[in-house]
């Protein structure tokens, strides 16, 4: 789980999921109310985790697996993505 780099509090899963839906470049720490920026590597890792079940799509088609199982794997990937979030005080350039 992400840890605020200012107050050192570790965010809960629920707080982190809520912050995942914030589409600003920064998120506000629920403890100290200061700006925190998701690190570029954690943004990339979270994006990769959320789309990773897409790699299973050929298997689902090939073995005629039920669609709810695919949806469940997307949900599981989304539910696990907060574990990959890392925070920073400073915004780093993308490149
Ligand atoms: Zn904080």
Automatic annotation (TrEMBL):
Keyword Membrane: yes
Keywords: Membrane, Transmembrane, Transmembrane helix
Parts of the chain that traverse the membrane: 55-80
InterPro entries, per database record: CxxC_20_CxxC (IPR026369)
Name by which UniProt lists this protein: Cxxc_20_cxxc protein
């Amino acid at each position: 789980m992400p840890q605020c780099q200012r107050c050192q509090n570790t965010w809960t899963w629920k707080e982190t999921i809520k912050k995942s839906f914030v589409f600003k470049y920064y998120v506000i720490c629920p403890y100290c109310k200061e700006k925190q920026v998701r690190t570029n590597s954690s943004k990339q890792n979270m994006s990769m985790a959320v789309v990773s079940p897409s790699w299973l799509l050929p298997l689902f088609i090939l073995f005629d697996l039920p669609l709810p199982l695919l949806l469940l794997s997307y949900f599981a990937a989304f539910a696990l993505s907060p574990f990959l979030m890392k925070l920073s005080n400073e915004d780093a350039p993308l490149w």
